[in-house]
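Components:
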Amino acid sequence: MKLRYRLLVHFCLLLAAVAYLGPFLWMISTSLKKESQAVQMPPLWIPHPLELHNYVRVFNSPAFDMSLYARNTLIIALLAALGSVLSSSLVAYSLAKMQWRGRNVVFGIALASMMIPFPVLMVPLYRIFRQVGWVGTSLPLWVPAFFGVPFFIFLLRQFYLTIPKELSEAAIMDGCTHFGIWWRIMLPLTRPALAVVGLFSFMAAWNNFLGPLVYLTHQSTFTLPLALQFYQSRSGGTTYNLLMAASVIVILPILIMFFLAQKTFVRGIATTGLK
Amino acid sequence: MKQQKSRIDWRSQLMGMLFAGPYLVGLLVFLLLPLAISLYYSFCSYNMLQPPLWVGWMNYRHLLHDHVFWRSLVNTLIYAAISLPFTLSLSVLLAVLLNTPLKSQAIYRTIIFLPCLVPMVATALIWQWLFNSDVGLIDYALRGPLHLAGGVLAGLARLFGAASSTVLTLRNLQPPVWLGEPRWAMTAIILMSFWGVGQTVVIFLAGLQDIPKDLYEAAEMDGIGAVGRFFHVTLPMLSPVIFFNLIMGIIGSWQIFDVPYVMTNGGPGRSTTFYTMYLFDNAFTNLRMGPASAMAWIQLLIILFFTAIAFITAKKWVHYA
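Structure:
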């Protein structure tokens, strides 16, 4: 390729990288500043001295129990991920590998239902969960994941379809039940796809804001995003150094997860658009 | 073969439905039942405390005369109409750049994807801080160039004999109070959406990698330049992926909530009150479940409408290999 062209591409990408990374760096920089430094003009990129104490302040703030919110969020995200993986793969197996009438209709409905966003169902779902006394608990945020998530069912079904029929037929000949095939053959074979489903649903639950805002009423049950918004509305948006420190704490676990599982992530997103 | 199919094997029918059971139950409890309840409520006056009262089309009629409803609808349409074309073009452009064979590509890809991982609430806080007037980074970055441009324009204006008030305005060109002025608050939220294109970029990138190399080679043989190859090979081959991202974008832009809720709380005035925000306000702030449910159904129909349009026009511009 021509050198001139490569240089142009490099230049554009460098510009983009600055624009996309800049807000992160600014957040980290602000989170390490004293309040007076945070509003200083011209802006200071590398604070001196580094005010690490901001993080201690956020963690020890009496109105903002960070470790509790982190635990709440983690439990919800883990349960949601577990539920999505188990239920979606079971349903996807049924839709891809088992012979029964109406399975294509069910698959069609699942596809169509992906077009119905949560806000549309917000009111009736709230009513239903209130009826069973779940409003104010985290149950509405992860129990539905155990009943199959259309998008993940769709994703896993595509994976199961690529597995040769002979494999499950041979297993049935050997006296293996469908449950056995799913558990002993399909799950191990589709581990990468299951990782994608687990990661995506973990992330969606971790980042979810509207759901917790609707269902969680007591501060002790708050998730991190909800607590972050609560913290901001309380502090009146003036103490940006602390707000940014809190934001870093909320973002960090997701970033670490991303770097640990980068390949899975990117492959997962890539497949969503193509199948 | 045909005979076998016409007779239902009850055992496998039962087993299949049993395995799909979680979703069949979920479909009923978390989708169909809520849809039915929502439809019913949309014809009721209901505040969650007293039993719902049938009022016929009243909620829908009131919405027609509710200027906040129209404002939220128009705001959402404006947002979608401006943000979607720009984010889609930007994503394609970035994907093409990221698909060029360079050694440092992995780093660039990661950097552009990172913002997608950030919870929307945190994104909103970061950008609220960046868009801060007086001490915000964007304000600071704009001050110099605006001062320079203003000086040049003022000089030109004076040269061409413009009114002195115009010259003075130009000379004092200031960055906008981003989140304090209606038009600029919307602009800020649209600009922010450019930061979160990473996921779309990755999908496009995968699409690009699926385009057969020999198409490009053939085009090059025919003497078609890089720009021509982009428009005659890349774009047509990428059109199914563009279509997919367009549909996702249409559905997504009707859900925008977190960012304006945290960053502007719908203001200033009602300039960033989006559809879902007003639905939420109706339902959980004012406890007016009737209008909220009516809004939900209108939203559903609007999404269906736009998706249908996308599907119908798709025949014209989407090329399936």
